[in-house]
Specification:
Layout lengths: L18 E4 L1 H7 L2 E4 L2 H4 L10 H7 L2 E4 L26 E5 L1 H4 L3 E2 H4 L5 H8 L10 E4 L3 E5 L18
Antiparallel strand pairs: 1-4, 2-7, 3-6, 4-7, 5-6
Bound molecules: zinc ion.
């Protein structure tokens, strides 16, 4: 058996914390804590009926990641740098409440329920994507606002220290 070509997902240790990232508009709506729901549960009309299968699948989940330090420069790892998203979807970090974290399913497992060509297309939809960091939920997930600590200001050295 060629194990390198196996469809069996690689089981990893569950990360200590899981996160999701939002834009300022979602942050205004969620505040300090709230529930992240699949996009399809937020839509009042059945606009998804006219969308393709990939879009409907993506909208069926809330999406999370084990990556704890997403920025403008790394947003591509979780697909949040797409121009079509318009907003800066990586600006505000929320941490999944611990009692919900164990209910989230790794993408590497959930993808087995998807049509393979759609799963592959999603995983290859950008050069930086890191699907092994993705987690998902079909139900609401409680999160807490958990801002990324600002980096310490760089120490001035040399001539710059005199300014
Ligand atoms: Zn927004």
């Amino acid at each position: 058996m060629d194990i390198t070509n196996s469809k069996v997902p690689v089981l990893r240790a569950r990360p200590e914390h899981l996160y999701t990232y939002t834009c300022s508009h979602a942050h205004d709506a969620i505040g300090g804590s709230g529930l992240i729901r699949p996009l399809k549960d937020l839509l009042v009309t059945n606009v998804l009926d006219n969308q393709d299968e990939a879009t409907r699948l993506i909208a069926s989940y809330g999406w999370f990641t084990s990556l704890n330090n997403i920025s403008r420069y790394s947003a591509g790892m979780i697909g949040l740098n797409k121009i079509s998203l318009k907003c800066n979807r990586w600006e505000y970090r929320y941490r999944v409440a611990s009692r919900f974290a164990g209910k989230l399913v790794p993408w590497t497992v959930e993808r087995l329920t998807w049509p393979e060509h759609i799963a592959q297309a999603l995983e290859t939809d950008g050069p930086d994507l890191e699907p092994s960091s993705w987690y998902m939920s079909r139900g609401p997930v409680q999160v807490f606002y958990d801002p990324i600590p600002a980096p310490a200001p760089a120490k001035k050295t040399g001539w710059a220290a005199l300014t």
